[in-house]
Specification:
Shape: globular
Number of domains: 1
Distance between the termini: 45 Å
Number of helices: 1
Strand content: 35-45%
CATH topology: Tachylectin-2, Chain A
Radius of gyration: 20 Å
Helix content: under 10%
Largest sheet: 6 strands, mixed
Number of strands: 25
CATH class: Mainly Beta
Order of helices and strands: HEEEEEEEEEEEEEEEEEEEEEEEEE
Structural class: mainly beta
Length: about 375
């Protein structure tokens, strides 16, 4: 007597999958659509011809509330993950001595308890003597690993904005909340002169695949600054990584930092990243973009969409900082940072006084037909 309903369920699932694969709209899904008016940049850097508009919830963590003034000058550059029913957030707290990776926790994604720094500055001469920030975590089933951004250089006080080179450093812990122990002797990889990662080789999302760990790391050159994402590989998370000779998208894309989501229904990978725009001679983070592909190691730079920018952000009219995504039921949460001022901050101040926001995409995510 349950045969007919079961057939209907199977048929409906098959129909949904077919629609996903064809790129047609699905009720309750977030669908990539052509952009009505793509932004043009004065230097001709590429823009996205699609949009995948997220619904913005607004600010969920404001700077200045962290213990000891750890984020009194700003909160930005988030990494969010879930463990045991608790959501954990690493964010860069701009404090009196520099930018440090700080921890906040939540059970509802709206109310966050700020715990303070999880890393300290390194000693003079060490790679993280000026900043130990942007802490990306990965659990291997036994140990928690954190790959974080270190640099010995910053702008002058009081802002202490991290400056090149941007390096990937390593720490580990027994629990997701720490305490974290730096692994000074572990050097995952370093910038290499003459490559697309000549001054930046900083951490990104780690994915396990076929016994190998893949990291989508941030890369850049200097003079001029070209930003992109590369793939690094290892079979030992406490060892060295091998970097692919070419980036996953051209450096002209001007993107940095990666948070990856896999849509099982359509067998599609979605890579959320931060785009760097240009206005009046100032480069600044102006949007969250997403790229999509069926092959994790092959990406087409034309397959990208704007997810969040000044058009659909409810509180930050100019600046949209790097994304971190986490699945919550039938929705995808997108954390990002922004600046609430109506006026565009200038110079180094464009990096300061930021807060953390939250936006949402309904699932599944639907790409357009292959073009």
């Amino acid at each position: 007597m349950h045969l007919i309903p079961r057939i209907c369920v199977v048929s409906r699932l098959g129909l949904i999958v077919a629609l996903l694969l064809s790129g047609l709209a699905v009720a309750g899904a977030a669908t990539v659509r052509p952009a009505a008016d793509a932004i043009s940049y004065p230097d001709g850097r590429p823009s996205a011809r699609y949009r995948l508009d997220a619904a913005d919830q607004g600010r969920v963590l404001r700077h200045g509330g962290g213990p000891g003034g750890c984020d009194q000058l700003g909160a930005r550059d988030v990494w969010v993950w879930e463990h045991g029913g608790t959501y954990l957030m690493h964010y860069d707290g701009a404090g009196p001595r520099g930018w440090l990776a700080c921890l906040a926790t939540s059970t509802n994604l709206k109310d966050w308890i700020q715990k303070g720094p999880v890393l300290e500055l390194g000693r003079k001469g060490e790679d993280d003597s000026a900043s130990a920030s942007y802490g990306v975590t990965h659990f291997d089933g036994r140990v928690w690993h954190m790959f974080y951004l270190g640099t010995p250089n910053t702008t002058p006080a009081p802002d202490y904005v991290p400056a090149f080179p941007y390096l990937t450093l390593k720490a580990h812990a027994a629990t997701p909340a720490g305490p974290w122990s730096k692994q000074v002797g572990v050097i995952p990889f370093r910038p290499k002169p003459g490559t697309y990662y000549s001054v930046t080789a900083s951490p990104g999302h780690v994915i396990e695949r076929a016994g190998e760990s893949l990291m989508f790391f941030s890369a850049s050159t200097d003079q001029p600054i070209w930003r992109t994402l590369g793939l690094a590989r290892t079979r030992d998370l406490d060892g060295g990584w091998r970097i692919d000779p070419e980036p996953i998208v051209p450096p002209t894309e001007q993107v940095e930092n990666a948070s990856v989501y896999y849509e099982g229904a359509s067998r599609t990978w979605w890579l959320f990243t931060n785009h760097v725009g240009l206005r009046d001679g100032l480069e600044y983070t102006d949007a969250v973009w997403v790229y999509w592909t069926r092959d994790l190691e092959r990406w087409n730079s034309a397959h990208k969409a704007v997810v969040l920018d000044a058009k659909n952000c409810s509180w930050s009219p100019h600046i949209i900082g790097l994304p971190s995504v986490v699945r919550v039921g039938r929705r995808l949460a997108i954390f990002y940072d922004g600046h609430a001022s109506d006026r565009m901050p200038t110079g180094v101040k464009s990096h300061m006084d930021r807060d953390i926001g939250l936006a949402w995409l309904d699932l599944p995510l639907v790409a357009p037909p292959v073009d």
